[in-house]
Amino acid sequence: MTRDDALRRVGFLKEAPEAARRALAMSGHTQTLTEGELLFLEATPSLGLLVVLEGSLKESKLDARGRELILAIHKPGSSVAELPLFDGGNHPTQASALTENTRIFRVPRPAFESILTNYPELARAALRSLAIQQRKLLEMLKAQALHTVRARLAAYLLAQNSATFSLPETNESIAAQVGTVREVICRTLHQLADLGHIALTGRTIAIVNREALEKIASGH
Fold first, then answer.
1. Which of the residues 40, 52, 123, 192 has an alpha carbon 20 to 30 A from that of 30?
2. How far is CA 212 from the centre of its chain?
């Protein structure tokens, strides 16, 4: 994906003036990461506007025991870590490449701020984007606090939006997203299969009883 195409897909830039996107495209550079390579660590200064051009990026936090909670998987056209871009603080998360040759387009924060001054409508759009992210994080926090691992895993399976699919990530990655460990994911998948809610063949899932999964996901 070109930087122009990627910038058009960024939430707060979709309706931006073409001149603003063009200025951003001319103000940045591309960085390529190998699989597992860190783009930034928690508590480090903002790198500026970060947009995925190719591959995928994992944004996560580590708890005191070193367990990882995945907050987002960023695909091409997705902006990363917008909060420090606007408030000037350090990164509250860390991000690393999930795939080989993950390409990131980066506009340094001073250059971004200069463009933001010339196009104040970008700030209004950014506020809406940050509000949407806040709602998503609140829903994630609610799920972590109020729902069991089985409920969170059922919701993850339903979110694939297909009756039959191959699990798109490793059990370790799924565990990080739903707030548990790999062994529990494996055990819970087999429990759901034993109950007849899903059919499990290797890494392929067939949803047999969607209604039952929806009840589990809702906490019933």
1. 123
2. 27
Q: Are 95 and 80 in contact (CB under 8 A)?
A: yes
User: In the numeric block, which tokens belong to residue 59?
Assistant: 């944004």
Q: What crossing angle do the helices spanning 109-118 and 18-27 adopt, rounded to 10°?
A: 160
CB within 8 Å of 12: residues ≥ 6 apart: 79, 82, 122, 125, 126, 128, 129
Q: How far apart (Å, rounded) are the C-alpha atoms in residues 215 and 209?
A: 10
Per-residue 3-state assignment (H helix, E strand, C coil) for 166-215: ECCCCHHHHHHHHCCCHHHHHHHHHHHHHCCCEEEECCEEEECCHHHHHH
Q: pLDDT tens for residues 112-134? A: 999 989 988 887 777 777 767 77
30 contacts 104 by C-beta, under 8 angstroms:
yes
Q: Which residue has the tokens 């059919």?
A: 199
- Residues with Cβ within 8 Å of residue 196, at least 6 apart in sequence: 208, 209
Residue 90 CB neighbours (<10 A):
14
Rounded CA-CA distance 206/157 in Å is: 10
pLDDT by residue (tens digit) across 145-190?
546 888 889 989 998 989 999 998 888 888 877 877 788 899 999 9
Q: Both tokens of residue 93?
A: 């998360």
User: pTM of the entire structure?
Assistant: 0.68
Q: What angle do CA 47, 100, 53 make, to 5 degrees?
A: 50
Q: Are 12 and 30 in contact (CB under 8 A)?
A: no
In DSSP terms, 28 is beta-bridged to none
Measure CA of the first residue to CA of the last residue in the chain; give whole Å. 43
